[in-house]
Design goal:
about 280 residues; alpha+beta; Thrombin, subunit H; six-stranded antiparallel barrel
Length: about 280
């Protein structure tokens, strides 16, 4: 994923077919650099039928956060998988099946509000230097203009408009990339999109000239590193935007801190159901 322009799930592209997207500069994470999974050990590739469709972030030993719009056309759970612990989406690490896909009940595909999904993996993750969860941000510690914001992913090598296809696996970057972006104040972002869609409190915006996320980065993590030091935190999930690295339109990300209660409730419910199942088996 990248910043400035934002990423477009192919479904999002269909919504904005009347807009003229700006071609991504060299594609992939626009203006970004190649990196390794050791630098971004929470990064995962969400796959459908063995092809990369979205990014995601590990937040627990069974859990991955991604975007709800990645599942607007929902296939059977067994058709999806998640590759963890690899800087290449097509090889390396571990390819894991899913137990459940939980999209936020308030997700609106027209406005892209509440664009969040929780994936429950079939296997418990064993954390290593190549695989680590990322702490989630809270509302009491929002990003500031001094926060270093970084977005990562395997996005498309060129912006493709006017296509409704979800077959994006062949065009994505084979190697993980990242780019630094800057926080865009909410009022400024609302003005930029005032004739497009509302920017809600459940969204945050980020951009930097010539740098952005693009198609295939959807669902990926926007992570912030405090200026005074300390652990990186997950602030956003790549959600939507007009074009890639379009200077008029910042990237829009799901505000993870606004969903802490929802995420905790889903994780808690999954744990409780697991305990009930175990007790039932014992009895």
């Amino acid at each position: 994923m990248f910043s400035v322009g934002l990423l477009w799930s192919l479904v999002v592209l269909v919504v904005f077919t009347t807009a003229t997207p700006t071609p991504a500069e060299e594609g992939r994470i626009v203006g970004g650099e190649v990196t390794t999974i050791r630098e971004f050990p929470y990064q995962v590739s969400v796959q459908l039928h063995g092809e990369h469709i979205c990014g995601g972030a590990v937040i627990g030993d069974h859990f991955v956060l991604t975007a709800a719009h990645c599942f607007e056309v929902l296939f059977p759970t067994e058709d999806y998988s998640v590759r963890v612990g690899s800087g290449e989406h097509a090889t390396g690490g571990h390819l894991l099946s899913l137990r459940q896909v939980i999209t936020h009940g308030g997700y609106n595909p027209q406005s892209h509000d509440n664009d969040l999904a929780l994936l429950i993996l079939n296997a418990r993750l064993n954390f290593t230097e190549h695989l680590q969860p990322v702490p989630r941000a809270t509302l009491v510690e929002p990003p500031t203009m001094d926060t270093r914001l970084v977005v990562s992913g395997w996005g498309l090598q060129a912006e493709e408009s006017g296509t409704g296809s979800a077959e994006i696996g062949g065009g994505v970057s084979p190697t993980l990339r990242f780019v630094d972006v800057d926080l865009v104040e909410s009022d400024q972002c609302r003005r930029a999109y005032r004739q497009v869609l509302p920017i809600t409190q459940r969204m945050i915006c980020a951009a930097r000239p010539g740098r952005d996320s693009c198609q295939g980065d959807s669902g990926g993590p926007l992570v912030g590193i405090p200026a005074q030091g300390g652990p990186a935190r997950l602030y956003g999930i790549v959600s939507w935007g007009l074009g890639c690295a379009n200077p008029k339109y910042p990237g829009v990300y799901t505000n993870v801190a606004a969903f802490r209660n929802w995420i905790d409730a889903q994780v808690g419910a999954w744990g409780w159901n697991g305990l009930l199942a175990a007790w039932s088996g014992v009895q």
